[in-house]
Amino acid sequence: MRTLFALTLLFTATLSAVELAEGLTLSGWGKQYLGITGMQENVTPDGVTPYEPQGTVQQSLRLRLFYKPADWFAAEAAWQVSPTVSQMGNDGYASFFTPSLNDYRVTDLKDTLYTGPGGQILFPHTIDRINVSFTLPFMDIFVGRQAISFGAAKFLNPTDVFAPLSFQDINREEKVGVDAVRVKFPIGEMNELDAGYVFGPDGRFSKSAAFLRAKFALRETDFTLMLVEYQYNLLAGLSIERAIGGAGVWLEAAYTADGVIEGRKNTDDDLRISAGADYNFADANLVLFGEYHYSMAGELYPSKYLANAASTAAYRDSGIYLLGGHYLAVGFSWEIVPLLNGSFQTLVNLTDGSLLIAPRLEYSMADDLFLDVGASVGAGATARRDSLLGFTYPVPRSEFGLYPYTVYTTVRLYF
């Protein structure tokens, strides 16, 4: 793997020096990730052997071609490959506490996986972008695999249901691309009407989605209203952003009517709200932030966390992964010295008092070359064991007391 990473660095450095044709640019990045992950005690059920801290080594290479021969037309393609060697096998427990991503792609490349006694070797690769765009006087059109992001919140986005990110994402550089047709109509200088259709597997309507979004500015405040149909659910969303006293503030909310398009009874309707602020102390090179999040789909009793997540539609369809109802995200980012940046984020479950802590240091070794060291650590009451008909299983006593811990380092090269 070290040889592969050295070749990746050499290859990407060579590419950065190549002059491409007029209007055609090549960019991308290469990365080496090394992580050590361990599970909390009493988390694994019967039949799954608890393991000591296990290692993962991943090499990633992403190449992006961007072609813009004229002001009115552009095309983009990106391919990414991430060979991974992991001791953790394929039991899935280390990745349980992340959003369930619905596959909003008509088709995709198949990963190669080898599993042996000592772990697994995974060779995932994907065409993550392949799209064309047309800039016309009265509208912009985007067709193909592209990144679609919604919402004003900085950490937990209620309206972002196509490819949501988790709070503890530590090894993702790019938003996952989805297959879509999107049209934007500018209305004046600051306003916009945005509509699109997002395709599911094989283009099936039951697995696809559609959205309508209006963005406008009023009294130095940005407002966004939206409707999204997905998985037969209907989401109504609102985002508000503005500056108050030098601080940036935001509010994002989404109400989802479960199965209303299909005519089902709305037993799993969901309301989620995120509200927060950040402030930049420019003289100290310090940014402080905080965000409150409410999820109606969450459970208030820790012992019922897992059963609720398994039976509630929002965890399957909407990318919800947090198990409780009330959260506070706080932290800071700080330029310690010109080449060294640090950040610290904490997500607090306000119901059970557990914490998810994510410290990180970034050192710039050279232009476009960075070294990161960080961790993601859950802290809280650990699970207890219970049994039924001779089968024992974990019963949560807090949310982040269930979480695995990860210590990692990455080297990233951009070109």
Describe the structure.
The protein is mainly β. The protein has one domain: Beta Barrel (Porin). Helix content is 7%, strand content 53%. It contains 3 helices and 23 strands. β17 and β18 (340-349) form a beta hairpin. The longest helix has 15 residues, at 2-16. It is globular and about 65 Å long.
CATH domain class name: Mainly Beta
**How many strand segments?**
23
| Rg measurement, Å | 22 Å
Overall residue-averaged pLDDT value:
87
As a percent range, the share of helical residues equals under 10%
Bulk shape = globular
**Which stretches are low in confidence, meaning pLDDT under 50 for 5 or more residues running?**
none
* CATH homologous superfamily identity: Porin
How many domains is the backbone divided into?
1
Q: If you consult CATH, what is the topology? A: Porin
Distance between the termini: 21 Å
Q: What is the H-and-E element order?
A: HEEEEEEEEEEEEEEEEHHEEEEEEE
CATH A-level architecture: Beta Barrel
Task: State the secondary-structure class.
Answer: mainly beta
> Biggest β-sheet, characterized?
18 strands, antiparallel, barrel
Strand content: over 45%
Task: Supply the number of helical segments.
Answer: 3
Brief characterization of the structure:
With 415 residues, the protein is mainly beta. Helices cover 7% and strands 53% of the residues.
What key attributes describe this structure?
single chain; 415 residues; two-stranded antiparallel ribbon; 23 strands; 18-stranded antiparallel beta barrel; mainly beta; Porin; globular
